[in-house]
Design a protein that fits this description.
The protein is of the alpha/beta class. The chain has a domain of about 90 residues: Rossmann fold. It is about 30% helix and about 15% strand. The protein is built from five helices and five strands; from the N terminus they run βαβαββαβαα. Strands 3-2-1-4-5 form a five-stranded parallel β-sheet, with helices on both faces. Helix 2 links the parallel strand 2 and strand 3. The chain is globular.
């Protein structure tokens, strides 16, 4: 399965890349990060030097799944177009954890970019939502 990671240069994105790199059924094919766009992933993170990838500002090529490691609000803005294209997305921010837009605004201090996605999203806690995932 070809995977992309949005914001590999943040802590969560870097850890995600480290974990996915070891997964036997995942091939990381594209990674993004504004602060290091144009640099080789292994030059920025030597422990990921086995991944021969260049960090880009936008996802490149075809992917089966995209992981977003952007902060809340920014993540929703990035993944909603991907969801609309039918690309499976996994958001590790807080953007799709809550079903209620008022609760989202209360907890995160901003309005959700598109609350219509909240009802259909699944919080990926497999111990609780295994059937929905």
């Amino acid at each position: 399965m070809n995977a992309g990671i949005i914001n590999v240069t943040g802590y969560a994105g870097c850890e995600l890349a480290r974990i996915l790199y070891q997964h036997p059924e995942i091939s990381i094919t594209t990674v993004t990060g504004r602060s290091a766009a144009g640099e080789k992933l292994g030059a920025v993170f030597p422990h990921l030097s086995g991944l021969d990838l260049t960090i880009t500002s936008e996802l490149q090529g075809s992917v089966d799944v995209v992981f977003s490691a952007l902060p809340h609000k920014a993540s929703a803005e990035a993944v909603i177009p991907l969801v609309n294209q039918g690309i499976k997305t996994i958001d590790i921010s807080a953007d799709f954890r809550l079903k209620n837009k008022a609760e989202y605004a209360e907890w995160y201090g901003v309005e959700h970019p598109d609350p219509s996605f909240l009802e259909d999203s699944v919080y990926g806690l497999t111990e609780i939502h295994r059937d929905e995932i």
